[in-house]
Amino acid sequence: RKRLTINSLQRMKQERNAISVLTAYDYPSAKLAEEAGIDVILVGDSLGNVVLGYETTIPVTIDDIVYHTRAVARAAAHTFIVADMPFMTYGASRELTLTNAAKIMQQGGAQAVKLEGGAEIAADVEALVKAGIPVMGHIGLTPQSVHQLGGYKVQGKTEKDAQRLMDDALALEQAGAFSIVLELVTEPVAEAVSKALSIPTIGIGAGRGCDGQVLVYHDLLQYASPYFEKKFVKTYADIGSMIRGAIESYVDEVKTGQFPAEEHVFQPGTASPQALYG
Ligand code: KIV
Ligand code: NA
C-alpha cells in the first residue's frame, strides 16, 4: 500500500473518512501498527512516559526522538510518520526550530513534525512550512506545559478558553499546519474547531466531532502503561497481563526444569545452530 500524504489526509476530512492515528516508538510497535492499517504513526514524546519511565514529557531530548523515529521508519515504510519536537527544541529561536526539525526529518526519517502551542508559535510553524517541513499543531492540554497549566486538566471549559482555542487553531491553519491535535478538549469546543478549520483535527480526549483520533500505543494495549485508566482511553487488549503471564510461565518452567525440553536441545549429529537461525 502507498504512504498517505498531507493531501490525502486533507481529502479524508472532506470525505468524512475518519483518520486513525496511533503512537509507536520502536520496530515492533510500528510494524504491527502498519500491518493493522493505521493511517498515521506518531512518534510522540509520550515515549518519555510509556517507554522511558519519566513522569512528564519534559526530559525527552531531540536525540531520543531521532533514535526512536529511526526504528519506526525502518518498520513502517508505507505509513505517514509524524514525530514530536520535544520540550524547548523549538520556539526559542527560528534557527533552533529549523535545525531540530531538520534532524527529525533527515536523521529520523519522519515525514512531518508536531509542535505544541498556538498563536505564539505560528511564526515558527510558518518558517518550517516554508522550509518544506509539514507541521502538525497540538493545542488544548499540551503536556510539555503541564507545570504552566497547573496539571493535566480538560481545556476549553470557559467561554474565554474556548475562544482562545479557536483563535489558536485558526492561527496554526493560517501558518500552514496540515493538521492539529486537540488534546483533552470538551466535545462541543473540539467540534466547533473542527468545523471552522479546513485542515483535519485529530482528537485525544476531545470527543466525537474531530476528523480523526489518536491514542497512545501502551494505553490502547494496556501495556504496562500507568495511564490506561484515563477516561478518554479505550483499551482493546490486555497485553500487559499476557506478557506478565508468559514470563511467569517461563520462570516457572526454568525453575521446574520443564524448559528446555528435548526439542530445544542440540545433540551431536543434528543441524548446526547457524542453520537453525538461517
Ligand atoms: O506524545 C504523544 O503521544 C502525543 C499524542 C498524545 C497526541 O502528543
Ligand atoms: Na506529544
TrEMBL record:
GO terms for biological process: methylation; pantothenate biosynthetic process. Signal peptide: none annotated. It catalyses: (6R)-5,10-methylene-5,6,7,8-tetrahydrofolate + 3-methyl-2-oxobutanoate + H2O = 2-dehydropantoate + (6S)-5,6,7,8-tetrahydrofolate. It comes from the Bacteria. InterPro entries: Pantoate_hydroxy_MeTrfase (IPR003700), Pyrv/PenolPyrv_kinase-like_dom (IPR015813), Pyrv_kinase-like_dom_sf (IPR040442). Keywords: Cytoplasm, Magnesium, Metal-binding, Methyltransferase, Pantothenate biosynthesis, Transferase. Its EC number is 2.1.2.11. Pathway: Cofactor biosynthesis; (R)-pantothenate biosynthesis; (R)-pantoate from 3-methyl-2-oxobutanoate: step 1/2. SUPFAM superfamilies: Phosphoenolpyruvate/pyruvate domain (SSF51621). The keyword Metal-binding applies. It holds the Pfam family Pantoate_transf. It is found in: Cytoplasm. 3-methyl-2-oxobutanoate binds at D45, S46, D84, K114. CDD domains: KPHMT-like. Homodecamer; pentamer of dimers. This is 3-methyl-2-oxobutanoate hydroxymethyltransferase.
